[in-house]
Specification:
Largest sheet: 5 strands, parallel
Shape: globular
Number of helices: 22
Low-confidence stretches: 4-8
Helix content: 40-55%
Strand order of the largest sheet: 2-3-4-1-5
Mean pLDDT: 89
Length: about 550
Amino acid sequence: MNLIDFDHNFYGRRGVLEVLKKRVLGLKDGYRQNVALLGNRYIGKTALLQRLMAQMEEQELCFVYLDLENRDFDYFASQFTKSLLYNYLKKENIAPQEDLKLLCQAAKERLPRTVFLVQAIADFASQAKNQEAYHMILSLPEVFTQESGKSVVLVFDEFSNLENFNIPDAFAELGKRIMTQKHCLYIMSSSQTQQAATILSEKLSLLFGNFETITIEPFNFSEAQGLVEHNLQGVKIGLHLRNFLANFTGGHPLYINLLCQELICLSGVFGQEEIYAPIVTQAIENVIFNPWGVISRHFELQINALTSGKNAGIAAAVLAALAEGKHKISDLTESLKLKTSQVCQRVNILQDANIVERNGNYYHIKDKLLGFWIKYVYQRRLKSIDLEPGRSRKQFKDELGRALNDFSMVARKDLSVRMADLMHKFDNESFMLCGRRYKLCAFRDIKPLKLRIGAGNYFDAISAQSEEGQWLIVLKKDPVQDTDLNGILEEIKKLDPKPSRSVIVSLSGLNENARVRALQEKLWIWDEDQLNCLMHLFDEPIIIR
């Protein structure tokens, strides 16, 4: 039984990867579109960048990859110059060395001006003249391209850390270079999404060379389910448990990989050819409950960084209340017995740290598994006195068992029942779902019904009364085709009174013609991603087709 090879088992993100490849190939054709990848730590940005470089290795251009997290200027200067010369020599089939002097010696005959500039950069850096060295570094790609005839792709991982080099106007200077370097493509990534977005909008908002921003999110349910299956190839696991893992991890690839790694180890230790619920609960206990479990330790370090210093207790209390389901500022202030200003201040800090997200007036812990850990591990670890050895562990296993059973029960419910349960939670709030704002009324008289579509065909539907009038929600798991939409529109016309709002909930979406016409008719369309976004907002398990 093989362990998961994290480096070589790249999974998903194919659409983003294709966009990046298109941008790189476009550079060769004279089209330049710089790209910024934003997303939480360990969400897969670096894996994407490494896969891109591996697949583009045969192209006649030079990649310079720099990981700037926790790096100083000396690293930046040294790695930038060495990477550029190393990759050039490799392309020219000249055996490259890692020492800068040897690299300069090997490239000097072919790239005299480039090597002269590299040596000048090294001299300035050695004298701590960082500003002068920085300006030269930014001019290096243009000089290199003129001499070599090769375009350059600069990949700055965690680019917002350039601010830590104490270079005056570091991004303003970078912006000037980006505008003029037509043969240099910049691909930047950052886990500090708020800070990076500010830099891109305020300091790198350029007349030429603007950045295309791509946000890397956790996998949706079907992608997460596929990653579990991909990691456990050759190991049997039931569909229900596979679905549970996809939902439990919130689609975060790191957590899925680590849990699957533990499942493979445990199934080998116990000699099990198929993974059953006891092994799943043991794996989760090992990595999440155990204080030295890899995910538990990861969360512990995150929380320690967020809850240190002045008002540390308030931040911890806010996170605990959010994990308990207190999602509005008013609910948080009442629960914590604090002033609104105190709660808002800490919530804003947690938002800036990309731990908490806001949708309408609702605040959530972005990382679903982190929320679970705060509620069932961290808070109990702080409060409990474990008078009986193993009591806390048993409580955690009981909670996990209930989570498994609850997920199983909810997964068996019909879509119309799940939708009606969800609608009972609406309370005249407005939310953003996949980039569009929706106001969700408070409903009464929520009733399931059958909507006749054509001869002998019926769709499940829900009728709901709000202060603004009657709503009709049509439900379909399969794709909605043109004929389906025609039937739905005909039935809506027959209804008396006519619905004030009609919504099509289709887990598989609508074909393009049906979608365009539905929007023209002012129908709302919710697909699987939008519906599961609502489920997340109201702390409900996701919908499974």
